């Protein structure tokens, strides 16, 4: 145990991990990572206050991808006045992996008992993983302290288990900036794949829309000219106004691994990488495929994240 004094503004690594568990348990938006003010209930469909898309607990458990988990971790670190871009990438990966393992435990619990776990349930499910992370960070600090004795922390251990790593915000920040890489052994977890539509709206702004699992129909607003993405969770205006796009122009189907694209018999057709699609024939999209809809050159790109 390192017996070193800390200031009144101390924070604890275990509190950061606990906050990640609490945030994931609140069911943040699977499309943008926004954390709701109150927890989502089983069977309830809510509208995200940040991106406007609607989702349920099942959407969170099946559609939350790595990039969204990273945004969630960023929000947690900001609560403790820690900036993600200043934290060593190895440590960020540990926190993101912990968020993903938390999600996996919640999913398994929900599928088994048809309800969300309590905070106590979740803490118990993740106890082994939490202990490994605490030990890995403590070991990393031990190595770091040999060269940087100015970093002052208190590490408390009981029967060989690291129970607490605490220090001032400044000291914790310096630790997370400089800590040597330490692998955290854990059960193998496959991050949920994520696919997105990337495009520029009529103002020239680059936009990214996560594709939910299931069907998304791209088409013109029945009462106007804005191109929309109609998803299971709701309809999203893309900020592209094109009268040459049909009302039901293009179907995109995502099963979590593969993206299928199908022209729905549109008036002005769909082209992928310059080649015109035959109506009502499915095309398997690849990462970076450029989709042009209508006659005015409105362009969408498929992007995969894993």
Keyphrases for this structure?
single chain; 306 residues; alpha+beta; Tumour Suppressor Smad4; 2 domains; six-stranded antiparallel beta sheet
What does the model show?
The chain has 306 residues and is an alpha+beta fold. It has two domains: 10-178, no CATH class; 194-305, Sandwich (Tumour Suppressor Smad4), CATH 2.60.200. The chain is built from seven helices and 17 strands. It has a six-stranded antiparallel sheet with strand order 7-6-17-16-13-14, with no helix packed on it. A hairpin with a 5-residue loop joins strand 8 (214-220) and strand 9 (226-231). Helix 1 crosses helix 3 (66-79) and helix 3 packs across helix 4 (89-113). The longest helix has 25 residues, at 89-113. The chain is elongated, with a radius of gyration of 23 Å. The two termini are 39 Å apart.
The Rg value, from CA coordinates, equals 23 Å
Can you tell me the residue ranges where pLDDT is under 50 for at least 5 consecutive residues? 1-8, 186-192
* Strand proportion: 25-35%
SS-derived structural category: alpha+beta
How do the helices and strands follow one another from N- to C-terminus? EHEEHHHHHEEHEEEEEEEEEEEE
Structural domain tally: 2
Categorize the overall geometry.
elongated
User: What's the tally of helices?
Assistant: 7
Give the proportion of residues in helices: 25-40%
Number of strands: 17
Q: For the terminal residues, how far apart are their CA atoms? A: 39 Å
What is the typical, i.e. mean, pLDDT? 84
Oligomer: single chain
Question: How is the largest sheet built, in terms of strand order?
Answer: 7-6-17-16-13-14
């Amino acid at each position: 145990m390192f017996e070193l004094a800390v200031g009144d503004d101390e924070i604890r690594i275990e509190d950061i991990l606990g906050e990640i568990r609490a945030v994931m348990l609140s069911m943040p938006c699977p499309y943008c990572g926004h954390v709701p003010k109150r927890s989502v209930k089983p069977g309830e469909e809510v509208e995200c206050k940040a991106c406007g898309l609607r989702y349920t607990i099942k959407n969170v458990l099946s559609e939350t991808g790595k990039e969204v988990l990273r945004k969630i971790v960023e929000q947690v670190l900001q609560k403790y006045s820690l900036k993600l871009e200043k934290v060593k990438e190895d440590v960020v990966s540990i926190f993101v992996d912990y968020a993903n393992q938390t999600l996996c435990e919640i999913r398994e619990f929900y599928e088994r008992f048809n309800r969300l776990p309590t905070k106590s349930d979740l803490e118990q499910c993740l106890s082994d993983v939490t202990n490994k992370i605490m030990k890995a960070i403590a070991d990393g600090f031990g190595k770091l302290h040999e060269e940087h004795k100015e970093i002052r922390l208190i590490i408390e251990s009981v029967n060989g288990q690291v129970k607490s790593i605490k220090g001032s915000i400044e000291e914790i920040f310096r630790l997370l900036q400089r800590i040597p890489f330490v692998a955290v052994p854990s059960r193998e977890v496959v991050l949920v794949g994520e696919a997105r539509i990337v495009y520029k709206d009529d103002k020239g702004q680059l936009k990214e829309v996560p594709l939910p699992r299931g069907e998304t129909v791209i088409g013109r607003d029945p009462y106007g000219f804005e191109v929309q993405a109609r998803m299971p969770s709701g309809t999203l205006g893309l900020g592209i106004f094109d009268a040459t796009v049909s009302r039901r122009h293009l179907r995109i189907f995502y099963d979590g691994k593969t993206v299928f694209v199908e022209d729905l018999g549109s008036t002005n057709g769909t082209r992928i990488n310059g080649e015109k699609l035959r109506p009502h024939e499915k095309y398997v999209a690849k990462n970076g495929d450029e989709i042009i809809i209508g006659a005015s050159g409105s362009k969408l790109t498929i992007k995969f994240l894993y």
